[in-house]
What we know:
Elements: H1 3-36, E1 41-51, E2 57-68, E3 72-79, E4 83-88, E5 91-96, E6 101-106, H2 114-119, H3 123-129, E7 130-137, E8 141-148, E9 155-163, E10 166-174, E11 179-189, E12 207-211
Parallel strand pairs: 6-12
Antiparallel strand pairs: 1-2, 1-11, 2-3, 3-4, 4-5, 5-6, 7-8, 8-9, 9-10, 10-11
Amino acid sequence: xxxxxxxxxxxxxxxxxxxxxxxxxxxxxxxxxxxxxxxxxxxxxxxxxxxxxxxxxxxxxxxxxxxxxxxxxxxxxxxxxxxxxxxxxxxxxxxxxxxxxxxxxxxxxxxxxxxxxxxxxxxxxxxxxxxxxxxxxxxxxxxxxxxxxxxxxxxxxxxxxxxxxxxxxxxxxxxxxxxxxxxxxxxxxxxxxxxxxxxxxxxxxxxxxxxxxx
Length: 214
């Protein structure tokens, strides 16, 4: 085999690999879009476990989440200590009752975060920031992997697991090797949620901190 034939075969193999990779990415994006667009509201219990780089459990929390697209959500942590994170679409409110403190942030700064984009089903924005792959599809269960296209992200790897068309686990790994797993249970698709759920009132006994940058 001469040099020209070797180069031709190499180029053909390279183009085939790129074509297959593009097809896999498109398949993953389309399938994830289908799953994320299947509902406009969502509620579930959650259990969140964070592991340090050495694999030891650093934190474990549990609570309840409510979501109404776009950009309305309430994340209530009950264990080990109470906390509320509420987005009314304009502001994100973080309430720590034990500290008697509320932090107010602009919702615009939170909309571009990966978890917010995922839960809101903003697949176009996700596609601009992440390479999306469908790792496994058994028909009833799917696992997706999201890899950032640049290094300007808090997370180096994100995996999403769906069961029977509903998100069941969100796995996040940051650049320092810390891993967080959020397992959802008792999920409800398109529940009727009162708008009052996403309205936050600052308690009279709490200090209000306004985070201009965040």
